[in-house]
């Protein structure tokens, strides 16, 4: 997923530079990935732009294909984003460090879609 997937939707990404989602999205860009911020604030008048990219309120609002859905949300909310990833045809799902939902993992894997859970791209790139 780290190498072959180029377009990463980052669920929970806002313009708050203190948040982990922001630093990881920035790293994804440095690694040549296109990021797609997903945040409810994008539905407000004037929208939202993060790291030079237009944000969308939901995955369903993104008007082009997304390769990976990278989830920075509470574990209790993560499963719905995994289901949205499947519904929109994402090629992979990534639950960040501390985000765990075994049922969502099983649904995604049963659909034949690769999924990573409870780790971070930064950690995985360092392991190489």
From TrEMBL:
What residue range is the signal peptide? none
Q: Which Gene3D superfamilies match?
A: NAD(P)-binding Rossmann-like Domain
Give every CoA-binding domain span: 2-99
User: Could you tell me what this protein is called?
Assistant: CoA-binding protein
| Organism of origin | Nocardioides anomalus
